[in-house]
Design a protein that fits this description.
Helix content is about 5%, strand content about 45%. Strands 5-6-9-10-8-7 form a six-stranded antiparallel barrel. The protein has one helix at about 1-10; strands at about 30-35, 55, 60, 65-80, 80-90, 100-105, 110-115, 125-130, 130-135, 140-155, 155-170, 175-180, 195-200. It is globular and about 45 Å long. The longest helix is centred in the N-terminal third of the chain and has 8 residues, at about 1-10. By secondary structure, the chain is mainly beta. Strand 10 and strand 11 form a beta hairpin. It has one domain: Sandwich (lipopolysaccharide transport protein A fold). Belongs to the LptA family.
């Protein structure tokens, strides 16, 4: 079984708003928020060359759809990437790139979980949502429905956080995007606007190598759809 999984997956290759001159309150954020951590720090680049390992209660293969389905307390790892969900579907395109979708069981109070280290700094990106899509070709993670993404200093200190209906993390360019939606509406936020908490960058740790990363707006909104 381990040899089969290795063969199947060996090829599987936070936040700053686009904002006015002053940051203002989180409630003043636009319906779409963009963030980049700059060119000196990205998702861990070695992850793309690592095999994907999956632990689950069950595994089935859908030959018609060319999808391998893992269910029951699924834990998928690929280098520093970690996905936890009730179900993870994995498929591969003709070029060998792999795509994983993690979802929770209907009615579950828990959310699917994503975690990845940023290269060159002692920082991590983690997120939760009802659905998590990982695109191995683009190194793009899309968190859909009740999505939250955090930038962590070390493993525990939350530096930035964004909450929205759909949040994407572009690991190649280190961009975040967030979109509003009715699923995150509630008291004080009836239209489901994006909400964010952003720490001052001068309090952030310096990269392990090179100069401190500079923030710039993302050039475009990504993750406009799901797998």
């Amino acid at each position: 079984m381990n040899e089969l999984l290795s063969e199947l997956f060996s090829e599987l290759p936070s936040l700053r708003a686009r904002r006015p001159a002053t940051l203002g309150l989180a409630a003043a954020l636009a319906l779409v928020t963009c963030l980049a951590f700059g060119p000196t720090a990205h998702a861990e680049q070695a992850d793309k060359d690592k095999p994907m390992n999956i632990d689950a209660d069950n595994m089935t293969y859908d030959d018609l759809k060319q999808v391998t389905i893992f269910t029951g307390h699924v834990v998928a790892t690929k280098g520093t990437i970690l996905i936890k969900a009730d179900r993870v579907d994995v498929r591969q395109d003709p070029q060998g790139y792999q795509y994983a979708t993690g979802t929770m069981a209907p009615g579950s109070k828990d959310l699917a979980y994503f975690h990845q280290k940023r290269e060159g700094v002692d920082e991590y990106v983690e997120g939760t949502a009802e659905r998590i899509d990982y695109d191995g070709k683009k190194d793009l993670t899309t968190l859909t429905t009740n999505a939250t993404v955090r930038r962590l200093q070390g493993l525990t200190t939350v530096m930035d956080q964004v909450h929205g209906s759909v949040v994407t993390y572009d690991g190649q360019n280190d961009f975040y995007t967030a979109r509003a939606g009715k699923d995150v509406a509630g008291p004080g936020n009836p239209t489901g606007r994006v909400r964010a908490m952003l720490s001052p960058r001068n309090g952030a740790p310096a990269p392990l190598t090179g100069a401190p990363a500079k923030l710039t707006p993302a050039p475009a909104i990504q993750g406009t759809g799901t797998q």
